[in-house]
Write a structure and sequence with these properties.
The complex is a heterodimer. Chain A is mainly alpha-helical. Chain A has helices spanning 16-44, 49-54, 63-94, 101-121, 124-127, 129-156, 165-186, 198-201, 211-233, 235-245, 247-252, 257-283, 292-305, 310-332, 344-358, and strands at residues 191-192, 203-204, 209-210, 285-286. The radius of gyration of chain B is 18 Å and the shape is globular. The chains are: A mainly alpha, B alpha/beta.
Chain lengths: 374, 244
């Protein structure tokens, strides 16, 4: 029943650490609940006593502001989710965190920037925006797939079979390598995407959402659906899941384990490339450090969702995206914390800590009795 | 058909030596398994039983000697190639893909095959052998009972349509009542026409259903006889059946 929840070691006496964790859990849940209550109180009437007690300067949010925050949170969260898929899938088959994955995403954003500027110079970006967009998505996915596959071949395959800490540290090295390679090739300055057509910037439909956000969410949803189909319903996908669970027995079934691992890196890279373009659409600027923070947040998203679980990666991405967008104004502002809009990153990682406190295996994480990776 | 000695063995080890680094795990091992037989390899811990299976399947390469599958020397061939040519294994402790459904486990057993009609009819055959498996098809295999998992593990191996089925410690990790049921399953698939090579510690049980057997001790074959003679052999009785 309690599987996956914070472990209550049956039989073992509760230690000081357990008590400390319980206090932390109560504090975290309490903070969120009081913040929410204060927010609701303020929304009802900014002058009621409880709201004033929580934050004397409270103003509350308008409906339009709230919707705007949620939608931008969903759009960014969808992007985090796409990056998180790569972390989660690689962890699933190899059992280590590929910290260079954020850099693959950055390469995707860079590739998109270069190709879209070339298209803009040729005048195609304005005249045929959707066509150009599809083109830069394809180019970026190809480049990122290649980067990820080469990374696996050069950096990780020679280390197969060594303790898990070693590829992990290697991945940090690969991450620095790619960042610095980007400085050498493209320079250290931030570079801009060309201007997008008006309909992308304009607000649409009855709830007034920016076109770029709709575009990002639709693209992410479609690619997630395609990936889910590939993994759940194709022979190659079954092979991936089999290798993830037991590579030795997968080989006994006749599955080529190395080729399957390459496919996993390729798919993760393609998703990161796509996410890089989404970054370009949302922020229209890219620099060599672009991969770092989204990468770390996507890794958090993978953990929040339950690492190794595809749906979990997407759900984790959306939770972190929405939480960092809505959380500061929904929970911290009503509590009278100052400068809340600077705290989005803190909120994103607080979600990670909160989930790990309450449900260590992640939202969708499951622990099977046979799970003893070595 | 004719005299079995005149026929080509389905699977054979000729003077095989296998090393793990400095450890000499198999020493001049000769084995021959003929079509239709049920044979077993007995031995204690670290006697080289698992190494024998790994060498036969190509997960470990022999240093000298030959592994011959259906008349072809397969020393340099991959596991996948050997599986395609008709040998597979039911691993120790079943090792099902627990997060995958029973159906997916069976489908993975047929991973190298492309004849969808043949796969479908073989799946029907597995259901005929083990009707319980059919009831559990869309369940995650990790949720099955030990006995059911054993059926799926055997079924998964049968899905590659093997000529020889290797079984690694089929009685390992099962409750005593299930061990007996398990050996009945093995007899059942043997009667269905499969050649079986079984590696076991439970000598009594294995010899009661096998035709012939070998006893392995620190990597060397020390006894090679019919199951009946092995059962009555004083050394074996002393070392494996706990009788002085």
């Amino acid at each position: 029943m309690r599987q996956g929840w914070a472990p209550r070691r049956t039989g073992a006496p509760r230690t000081g650490v357990d008590q400390f964790l319980t206090v932390l859990r109560v504090f975290a849940v309490g903070l969120v609940l009081i913040g929410l209550a204060a927010f609701i109180a303020q929304e009802i009437n900014t002058d009621n006593a409880f709201a004033r007690w929580a934050n004397p300067d409270a103003t509350g949010l308008t409906g339009a502001q709230f919707r705007g925050l949620v939608v931008s949170g969903i759009a960014q969260g969808a992007m985090y989710g796409l990056i998180a898929l790569g972390y989660s899938m690689v962890y699933g088959v190899l059992g280590f965190i590929n910290f260079a994955h954020g850099e693959v995403f950055m390469m995707g954003a860079m590739t998109g920037m270069i190709t879209s500027n070339k298209l803009a110079d040729a005048g195609l970006w304005e005249s045929n925006f959707i066509g150009s967009l599809i083109f830069i998505v394809i180019v970026s996915m190809i480049v990122c797939t290649l980067v990820a596959v080469i990374m696996e071949r050069v950096a990780y395959r020679p280390l197969r079979g060594s303790p898990r800490l070693i590829p992990l540290i290697t991945s940090i090295g690969v991450s620095f390598f790619i960042q610095n390679a980007s400085i050498v090739l493209l320079g250290p300055a931030a570079k801009a995407y060309p201007d997008v057509p008006d309909w992308v910037k304009d607000k649409h439909t009855f709830i007034q959402i920016e076109g770029s956000r709709i575009l990002v969410v639709v693209v992410a949803a479609v690619s997630m659906g395609v990936l889910w189909y590939l993994v759940e319903h194709t022979k190659g996908g079954k092979a991936m899941r089999a290798v993830a669970e037991d590579a030795e027995i997968a080989a006994l079934m006749g599955i080529n384990v190395n080729r399957t691992i390459v496919k996993v890196f390729a798919v993760g890279g393609a998703m990161a490339g796509l996410a890089g373009i989404l970054w370009g659409i949302l922020f229209r600027s890219v620099i060599h450090t672009t991969g770092f923070l989204p990468g770390i947040k996507a890794f958090s998203a993978a953990v929040v969702g339950g690492i190794g679980h595809l749906g979990g990666a997407m759900a984790g991405g959306l939770s972190i995206g929405v939480a960092e967008s809505v959380g500061p104004l929904l929970i911290l502002e009503p509590l009278g914390v100052s400068g809340v809009s600077q705290l989005r990153d803190a909120v994103a990682f607080a979600v990670l800590i909160g989930v790990l406190l309450l449900r260590p295996a992640g939202i969708f994480g499951e622990r099977l009795p046979a799970e003893d990776r070595t | 058909m004719s005299d079995p000695d005149a026929a080509t063995p389905l699977l054979e080890m000729r003077q095989v030596n296998t090393h793990y680094g400095a450890v000499h795990a198999l020493k001049d091992v000769n084995l021959a398994i003929y079509a239709g037989e049920m044979v077993c390899l007995l031995g204690g811990n670290a006697s080289g039983k698992s190494t024998t299976l790994k060498t036969l399947l190509g997960m470990v390469k022999p240093t000298t000697g030959q592994v011959v599958l259906d008349g072809e020397v397969v020393n340099d061939r991959s596991t996948a190639y050997r599986v395609e040519r008709g040998v597979t294994m039911v691993p120790e402790n079943r090792r099902l893909f627990q997060r995958l459904t029973v159906r997916e486990n069976l489908q993975l057993g047929a991973y190298l095959r492309n004849d969808s009609d043949g796969i479908a009819s073989d799946m029907e055959w597995v259901f005929e052998l083990f009707p319980r498996v059919k009831e559990r098809l869309s369940q995650k295999s990790g949720t099955l009972s030990g006995g059911e998992q054993q059926m799926v593990a055997i079924g998964r191996a049968l899905m590659s349509r093997p000529k020889v089925l290797l079984m690694d410690e089929p009685s390992m990790g099962l409750a005593p009542a299930l061990v007996k049921q398990n050996f009945e399953l093995i007899e059942q698939i043997h009667e269905a026409g499969l050649t079986i090579f079984m590696v076991e510690q439970n000598a009594n049980m294995a010899l009661s259903i096998a035709d012939r057997g070998w006893v392995l001790q620190t990597g060397r074959v020390v006894l090679d006889d019919t199951a009946q003679n092995l059962l009555n052999h004083p050394d074996l009785r002393a070392s494996y059946l706990g009788e002085a």
